[in-house]
Amino acid sequence: MSVLLAKKKIIEEWVDYNGHMNLSYYILVFDIGAEVFLSKFKMGEHSAKTTKRSTMVVETHTTYNNEVKEGDEVDVFLSHFDHDKKRLHYKLEMYDKVKNTLSATTEVLSLYINLNLRKVAEFEDEKTKIMNEFIDKHKDNFKSENLYFSNKLKK
Predict the structure, then answer these.
(1) Taking Cα atoms as reference points, which of 8, 111, 117 lies closest to residue 58?
(2) H or E element: which one contains 155?
(3) How does pLDDT run across 15-58, given as a tens digit for each residue?
(4) Domain locations in the chain?
(5) Please, is 49 exposed, middle or buried when counting C-beta atoms within 10 Å of its C-beta (0-12, 13-18, 19+)?
(6) Which terminus, N or C, of the chain has the lesser number of Cβ atoms within 10 Å?
(7) Are residues 66 and 103 in contact, defined by beta-carbon separation less than 8 angstroms?
(8) The CATH number of domain 3-137 is 1.20.1740.10
(9) 33 with 5: CB under 8 angstroms?
(10) Residues 6 or more apart in contact with residue 154 via CB below 8 angstroms
(11) Contact indicator for 85, 22 with CB cutoff of 8 Å
């Protein structure tokens, strides 16, 4: 199984006039999940505030597979992760907790940014080591099929 990142209950404010979660809140829920591993890699909110290093999403591919409605509980999993010297490539999956059905996916390509300069930067050795250890630990759980951005990493 992929790496569990977050569990969320869908609240009324996230539901639109069609009676299901609005697409913008799918991205919010995915972003809450992404913050979990970005923080482990020292690239999350704390890093942005203290070291002025963070990531910025430059491309996504999102699928909406099954409706999510108010009161539903969802789990967000990291199903793929890779990187090069300055890019992160990952895929997240959202599952309905009760039905255990795939609700949505998002595949993301992010750049590592020096926020002082507002320019792309290379990962520090410490962060590369943390990411590589994470990949080694979880690679057997990752899925590499149906990825759109694998060819964008420069290895």
Answers:
(1) 111
(2) none
(3) 999 999 999 999 999 999 999 999 999 999 999 999 999 999 99
(4) 3-137
(5) exposed
(6) N
(7) yes
(8) no
(9) yes
(10) 84, 85, 87
(11) no
